[in-house]
Write a structure and sequence with these properties.
The chain is an all-alpha fold. The protein has helices at residues 5-13, 18-24, 31-43, 45-62, 66-78, 84-97, 113-126. It has seven helices and no strands.
Length: 127
Amino acid sequence: MALTPREKKFVAAFQGNATEAAEKAGCKGTRASLATQGWRMLRKVEVREAIAKREEGLLEHLTFNVAELQQQWTLLAADESLPVEARLAAMRDLAKSQGAFVHRHEHAIGKSLEDFLREISDTGAKK
C-alpha cells in the first residue's frame, strides 16, 4: 500500500522523535495529541519500512569504505594547515590500515609442545 502525502512527510521528517515528525508532517494539536498521532504513524508497517529504507540509504552515504578512509587520511596528512599532531594521527591511521604496523606477542608456556599435548590428552582421558 502506498504512503499518503502526510505519511511521506512524516517519514522525511522523522529523526527519532515521532511528536516532532508529526508536527512537521502537518498534524495539528497539542503536544500530547501530536505524540499520539506520531505513535500511530509509527505503528504502520509501511511507515516503519519507509523510515528504515531511508535510514539505510543515509547510512550508505555516511559510511566510508576502506579506500575512502585511506583517501581522507591522505588528504589530512598532507594538509599543512592542520596541527602536526592531527597530521601524524592521520599518517598513523593510514599506515595501520595498510598493515604497516604488526604487533607480535610471544607467549611462553614453560613446557615443550609434546608435554603440553600429552597433558591435554591425559586430562581428557581422565574425564
